[in-house]
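Help! Submission page says 'invalid entity' but I think these are all valid:
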Amino acid sequence: MNVLNHIIRFELMSLWRDQTLKLLLVIFLAAGVYGIYFGKFEIEKQEARIAVVQGLERNQFDSLVAWVGLDTTIHANKKNFERAISPTGVGRERHFTYYVTHDTPPLAGLCLGQRDLFPVYYGINITDLARQVNVGELANPMKLLTGNFDLSYVFVFLLPLLLISLFYNLYASEKEGGTLSLLQAQPVSLTTIFLGKGILRLLIVWGVSGLLLLIGFVLQGISLTENINLFSRWLSVIFGYSLLWTILMSGIVALRRGNSLSAMMGLGLWLVFTLITPALLNLLVNIKEPVPNRAEVIHATRTLNDQIWETPRSFVMDRFNENNPEFGLIDTSDFNKWYYAGLTLLDEEVKSRNADIEKQVTRRQEWLSRWDWLAPAGVVHEYLSELSETDRDSHLRFITFLHEYHNDLKTIYYEKIFSSQTFNRDDLAALQSKIGD
Amino acid sequence: MQRLIIRKEILSSVRDVRLQVAGIFLLSLMLVAVLVGRQGQQQIQKQRAEAQATMYDKWVNQGLKHPHSAAHYGQFAFKPKSALSFLDVGIDNYTGVSVFLEAHRQHEVLFSAAQDSNGMTRFGEMSVALVLQVLLPLLIIFLTFNVFTREREEGTLKLVHAQGVSMRQLFMGKLWGTYLMVLLIFIPVVCIAYFVLNRETAGLDPHNTGKFVALTLSYALYFLVFILLCILISAFSKSSTFSQLVLLGLWIVACIILPKATTNLADKIHPIPSQFEFRESIKEKVSNGIDGHNPSDVRLAELRKQTLEEYGVSTIDELPVNWSGIAMQAGEEYTDQVYDQEFSRIEEIYKKQNRLSEWVGFINPFLAIRNLSMAIAGTDFQHHVVFTRAAEDYRRAFVKKMNKDMEVNHKPGIAYGDYNVGEEMWSSVEPFAYHLPKLGSILKNQWRSVSALSLWLVVLFALVPLYIAKVPKL
């Protein structure tokens, strides 16, 4: 152990005098800091968008609350009062638009993941959700294709390159520099010497990565004390990934080849694991488990909608009464009751259709996860986006929340609509609490 | 003499086991990409064509109903997967694939493949383009980084020179030797790709062969540029290690780092409004007029006055035609104007962003070939725009037809539910058909990338006679 310590200490001294190492570390850190700022920029853009819709929602709801107290003996106040108390709304802007937002998770700026593919807010009212979620956020597909230069990118793609450049000449430089025979003449075995050199390099990479992650927390204003758990889990993923590349590079060093060939083999491994295998898996999964045709859901919606409008009202009411006994038996004479009952049918239909579609997507993921050990870079990226809650599942959780939110709203509104009541001041106060602060 | 040098270059490379392994690896990778990719393209295209036919069938067989109800029942447009897309998937996984077409509203083209995939999808999809743009240049680097430095290090450069070979001859020999070898890997794949090309979709794109040739030539040009660049750097490098380091560094910057940085910069220079701002702006313009001083109720009153005057009557009830039909079509045409304005504003921002990366092609040939390749393969943003427009034009035409029928045939006094039309009307609307842009318009649109690659070639060739004599021989 003492010998190993000794080797590491001296290797550190000689590495410290080497300008290349410093240059590499500076480049790596610079790339990391750029990634941190880029992630911050993207997240701030999303947050600004969220703030706009939240502010609008709050202002508009404040108006409703003010209007409910209006003196209706004055004619000019009548319309606004009606708008505030009517659960079905009045006029062209029939319904109040609630904005449900996918608030930024604490570490989202470090790994943007799949978050840029989906809207971070939906404007919804109490009509069917089915036709209100068919929107996307505006994004240039070229940008989505090129991807994000965030901190996770630096760790997944550039960290292995740093390790490769630290390791590739470990053996060859001794040989080509003529110092190998000197080392062999030492009482310590070559393996121990190279082990020491290797451990030191891994420690340097670990240190720099930890430092970079810490810089990321500081520059993005993420609280370390509140997220210490996430910090350590990020760190362990990165440490594990570095260890994997260290092992791979040690294998190449153990082959005892020249500088150029070792570098080529390292680069080859990097190409295979970060570029080629993920790309091959993506190609194959499209054939094995094709992307589902989601237009079918829209088709189902429009077909049902067509039936609702083109057939007698009993079509809707029979189905609605069966599925929603809590509202009591609703008759067909009232347009509003029939109309909202019809919208509920649409949502129920879409829910079951979407479940089928999601099963197909799950089969895609399952196929991928069977083979993803071939693409460690992909796995690491997925881990990091899971920890940062920017993966696809995080979006799905948001969608589930959106459905629950919509359901809660509907329960409040539909109780009024189906019993032909209007909102009073207390009802609006209860609704206001759903908007949050 | 030159032929001798070319032969020597090829022989010494072919005998190199490392290059043999790398070459065979790349070849098999491209074969897999061609065969699996082509199967995927066919599968997706089949799925979409079937969906398109099914949806049209549903439209024709929707039964008796009011034409406006039919306009709301609506139709679908599915984006065809271009025959060449298996060579370069481009942005295909990040754009929507289908759009619902109905009265009053221009819906978005929705459901990208990336949204139905996990994070792995961000690593890209294997295609011939990926191999040709990113991996083959790496092989070129390993073929060329020491072509001059090794001769110098082994002292053979002086010997060759003493035998009366001019530096220029030597340079050209090495250039064409390497180029021939690259073509040796490239051409067979091209031939196989052309052989398996999906010809069932010929109706979709009758210019496949021309585009295929253009794509091949573009890559041939790109390789020549890249080889020239590598050999020039090798010729002026002090040592093999140095030239290898420089070339690998350039490769990482050009293929991995610069593309991301360019797109991010473009996004900062030309920011995109949010979906919320976009929708609000449309809503605002529809209700208050495009100029902000022409509210919808004023527009409607104006239309009513005009229509009454036109038919010489004083009330709506006296009109011989259906007022709702006229009002709806007028409303439709006004919102169309708003949609056109707003959608093209967004498209223009995207195009400005993309143009930046086309300009950077003059600095980074990788970006030039990337943009050119996906344009010719029919998988770039412009193709998406053309599809979106075609679908929107189709929507406007059939909605107009429904409104016109309502205006003329739905006589006043008859209740909405009592005027119905059927299959004859529905089938008089032709199915949605979309044709890919022609090669000429694609190249015109990509003139920056074409000029960037050509300029690179011209400048590099011009550099050779200027500097070749200065190549150090020791």
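Support: the input was valid. A stray whitespace character was the problem, and the output above is from the cleaned input. Chain A touches chain B through 82 residues (CB under 8 Å).
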